[in-house]
Amino acid sequence: MSKNIVKNDFLLHPGHLYVAVEPTLIRCVLGTCAAVVIWDRRLAIGGMAHFMSPRTKDRTKATPRFGNVATAALVRILKSKGSRPQDLEAQILGGAHPHAAEKPYLGDDNVKAAQRSLKRAGINIVSEDTGGMRGRKVVFDTSTGHTGVLKVQTIRRGDWYPLEPRFQRISD
Fold this sequence. Notes:
Elements: E1 4-5, E2 8-11, E3 16-20, E4 24-30, E5 34-40, E6 45-51, H1 67-80, E7 88-94, H2 106-121, E8 124-130, E9 135-141, E10 147-152, E11 170-171
Parallel strand pairs: 2-4, 7-8
Antiparallel strand pairs: 1-11, 3-6, 4-9, 5-6, 5-7, 9-10
Helix pairs in contact: 1-2
C-alpha cells in the first residue's frame, strides 16, 4: 500500500504551462481558453498547458499563449523527464463560447489546435470536456491522473485563487 501525498498546489494562469514530478494539484480557470493535461501513467507525473489562442506561425511570438506552442512544449518537457509517448494520456478541456452570437468561436479553434498538436505528437486523447457556454474550474492531480471539472455560469475574480487552507490528500 503506497501513499501519495499531494505536496504542491499550483494555480496555472493563461499563457503558461507547468510540469510536476512530485504529486501536485494543478488548477486553472477556463473560459474560451483551452487546457491540455498530459499524464504519464508509468512515471505518475504530469503537466498542464493553459493557452489563449490556437496558433502562431511567427517564431518570434512562439510562447505558451498559443496552443500549438504550449502543447508541443508540454510534450517535449515530459519526454525530457523520461516519458514515452505510449505511456502518455491527454485530456483537452475548455474552449467555451460564452457569447453564442460571436462567430467564429475562439474556443472551438483552441480545442482543434490542441487536437492537432496531440495527434502530431502521437499522444492518445482519453477525454475531452470542451465547448458549450459555461466556463470551467479544473483541478488535475499529477499523482493519479484524475481531473475534476466544475462548470460555472460566470467566472469571478475569486475563481483565480487556490482554495484555502491548503490541504494534503492521502491515497492508497
